[in-house]
Design a protein that fits this description.
The protein has 189 residues and is mainly beta. It has a single domain, classed as Immunoglobulin-like (Sandwich), CATH 2.60.40.680. The protein has one helix at 5-21; strands spanning 36-39, 48-52, 60-68, 78-84, 90-92, 97-98, 108-116, 119-130, 142-152, 156-168, 179-180, 184-188. The protein has a 6-stranded antiparallel sheet, with no helix packed on it. The termini are far apart.
Length: 189
Amino acid sequence: MKEPANVRTVLSGALAVIALACGGGAGGDHGVVPSLLCSGTTAPAPDKVTLGCPAPGVNSIAVVVHLGGPTTSSDIYGLQFDLVFDPTVVQFEPPAVEGSFLNRDGAATVLQAGEMQGDPGRLIVAISRQAVPNGLQASGADQIVMTLPFRGIAAGSTTLGFQNAAAVDSNLQPITGISFGTSLTLTFN
């Protein structure tokens, strides 16, 4: 049985549209999906604040701030730090998202994260408990303090590292027993 000419024309047109939509054709990087990868993460350890990435991303990635436990301090009231990075590779994508550690007893918290004006590669971050007289102890091995979303903007690699970092107690005094971990690397391809 012979196909009608109009059916062949419709099928040919449909196949051409599918080929174009799938990046058909020769050369170029058609169909290549950018990726944002994370490396250099370390496992949470007692009394240490670390950075981690639960999964690679396409254009964006979640950087998680962890506090390893159990901690020696039972009065952790907040954290403050600068996170430095190369703003030509990635940029912070607000909002920062509060984790489950500092509010686990129902206390309100305040989380602020924003780039320093005139210094786009410096994210100033602070989180604190509010309207309660005391802080908490990290009893579990891994407490999530917050998540900071980043988006890739140009191919390359950058390290994210802590500067000016401190954990503070309910008197807003630094807790010397809590340290901040090493940098991690984000690579945008």
